[in-house]
Amino acid sequence: MSDLRPAARSRLLYAPLLLLSIALGLASRRYAAALPSFISAYAGDALWAAMVFWIAALLFPLARTRILASAALGISVAVELSQIYHAPWIDDLRAARLGALALGHGFLWSDLLCYAAGVAAAAAVDLVLCRSQRRRVRMRNIKQATGVR
Prior knowledge:
This is DUF2809 domain-containing protein. InterPro entries: DUF2809 (IPR021257). It comes from Lacipirellula limnantheis. The chain crosses the membrane at residues 42-60, 67-87, 107-130. Helix content is 77%, strand content 0%. With 149 residues, it is mainly alpha-helical. The longest helix has 38 residues, at 109-146. The radius of gyration is 18 Å and the shape is elongated.
């Protein structure tokens, strides 16, 4: 896997990826009855982890893909493990819609696999985008060096 440092991730490109992940994740919950059971059961969790990756990419546009993926997976696993803990204050947070979306309700081993799949998919997209960005920068530099317009 090529993991060269990107020139800089475009926030104009990554913000829509974040919003798309959120929209698709919410839709996977809202329209679960209309979706195949596999998709309705697992897509939301994978998209949640992808969302964490896109947030990390927006916050740290010069970070290596491997670092972003590790951070996103670590955060996702930490949030899932936090679902084992039940105290009144955190259960009150989870009772609210936004808290439930952010923190989840109950620990499931299968969610860890979904998170890994979501982060892997986002990282793969990121690698393609970074490679394309490097190619554009390289071509621009060649054109500038040779005086070609």
